[in-house]
Amino acid sequence: MVVTDGQRMEGQACFSQENIDRLVGASPLPSMVRGACPSLSTPMQTGDGLLVRLRPTTPGLTVAQVRALAEAAEMHGNGLIEITARGNFQLRGMRPQSVDGLAADIDRAGIIPESGVTIEVPPLNGLDSLEIADARDIATRLRKVIDALAPAPLLAAKLAIIIDGGGRLTLDGLSADIRLRAGMSADDAHLWTLSIAGTAATAKPIAAALSDEQAIAAVIALLQTLGDVGPRARGRDLDAEVLREQFQFDEAKMGDARGPSVSPVGVIQLDETRNALGLRPSFGQIHAADLRRFLAVAEMAGVSEIRTAWDHTLLLLGLTPSAMEHVRTVAASCGFRTRADDPANYAIPCSGAGACASAHYATRQAATDLVDIAPELLDGSLKVHLSGCGKGCAHPGQTTLVIVGAATGYGIVVNGSASSEPVAYIGKEKLKSGLAELGRLVRNNKAAGESAQQCLKRLGRDAIATALRQE
């Protein structure tokens, strides 16, 4: 169903050209935007060569396909493979003359990279007994409508649509320009809530109780509006109040609240008989040789499919309970984190110096030091973002603590992003002692039953800044 001017969905308003000026908020579009996402056709130059990012069109890959990807990464690049925070593959260290060979090898493996507007669905879609709706079906139908639009809307390169059908691994923590979130109606039918600009917690709902067809039409209407505004327009630039009026939003019609998502790392129950095993490469990165070594064991153990998930994770499907612990043990020896409560899961470094020309320090080594020096911070209640510069690529959103690299040292940000104003600065040679001081601050002040995040929140920014200045 394609929305045209003057059309009206049942119970939901659509858009016309006259509404565009009202739909865009008063705040100006940002004067600076980050470039398009790196891909096979447009790799990005970094400190260690060209970077290629890809998301397969299929829900997952076979072991043979992941092995082919690892071999291609080693043959045409430096062999470093990353799983991003949103579950994309990244291959590092390519040279201009090697990209064509990489593309050919990926094509021979039967891996088709997704292109066009980014549409994300939960990683266990179609397998999870707790999911409410088939998000991938809606995504497929939506993409067909988008591809048929003439003229095609010119959209922001980083614009993202999330279609979340629920389940154990929801996409609630990921930010999106446009978000469809399934809920259950009183008669146990699934309906969609449409929101803009943010995570599930921060996005602004603008329409509720949408059927599949209404949800697709509403997203198309928003995309056409953004395209008419201009190629830099994002969900945050739309006026939620005007949209609520257009869509006749009724908060009472929003679906029932869903349970929290589980960690993607560790054993994840799919139903009464099936499980998935989530593995996280240490700090999101693994070398192709280690991955190939692990895949040989995984294949022998019966892994039938490998999917990527948010939070830098691979999901293994098809393992029997008896094989799972053996595979888990081998995975740990190959450089994977295998348990949800592993402290290293809560240290989030970017690629760092050597891999990124903008980075001012070796963030992955700093993350290793953080695990050793200040484990008190990594109890699972918060994440520590180690950003080589102020761009914050590894975690664009806010976190409790951010260690931001600068030319003369490090900025310490509390409850903000890498671009936020630091509460304190520490010198170039004092990172380890600064991390130790933060760990000591929590260890010496945490009350019984209190988490690290609760402790730091109670102490406040001034106490954190004072402790670092005394270091």
Tell me the layout of helices and strands:
Blueprint lengths: L7 E2 L2 E2 L6 H4 L20 E3 L2 E6 L8 H14 L3 E4 L5 E6 L4 H10 L9 E3 L14 H14 L11 E5 L11 E9 L5 E9 L5 E7 L1 H18 L10 H8 L18 E4 L5 E7 L3 E3 H14 L3 E5 L3 E5 L3 H13 L2 E2 L9 E3 L13 H11 L10 E4 L11 E8 L2 E8 L7 E4 L3 H15 L6 H19 L1
Parallel strand pairs: 7-8, 8-9, 18-19, 19-20
Antiparallel strand pairs: 1-2, 3-4, 4-6, 5-6, 5-14, 9-10, 10-11, 12-13, 13-16, 13-17, 15-16, 20-21, 21-22
Keywords: 4Fe-4S, Heme, Iron, Iron-sulfur, Metal-binding, Oxidoreductase
Organism: Rhizobium lusitanum
InterPro entries: Cbl_synth_CobG-like (IPR012798), NIR_SIR_4Fe-4S (IPR051329), NiRdtase/SiRdtase_haem-b_fer (IPR005117), Nit/Sulf_reduc_fer-like_dom_sf (IPR036136), NO2/SO3_Rdtase_4Fe4S_sf (IPR045854)
Write up this protein.
The protein has three domains: 8-32 and 124-253, Sulfite Reductase Hemoprotein, domain 1 (2-Layer Sandwich); 266-342, Sulfite Reductase Hemoprotein,Domain 2 (Sulfite Reductase Hemoprotein, domain 2), CATH 3.90.480; 345-470, Sulfite Reductase Hemoprotein, domain 1. Mean pLDDT is 90; it is low at 1-35. The strands form five sheets. A five-stranded antiparallel beta sheet has the order 3-4-6-5-14. A five-stranded mixed beta sheet has the order 7-8-9-10-11. Strands 12, 13, 15, 16 and 17 form a five-stranded antiparallel beta sheet that branches. By secondary structure, it is α+β, with helices and mostly antiparallel strands. It contains eleven helices and 22 strands. The relative contact order is 0.11. It has helices at residues 20-23, 63-76, 99-108, 135-148, 212-229, 240-247, 288-301, 321-333, 363-373, 431-445, 452-470; strands at residues 8-9, 12-13, 44-46, 49-54, 80-83, 89-94, 118-120, 160-164, 176-184, 190-198, 204-210, 266-269, 275-281, 285-287, 305-309, 313-317, 336-337, 347-349, 384-387, 399-406, 409-416, 424-427.
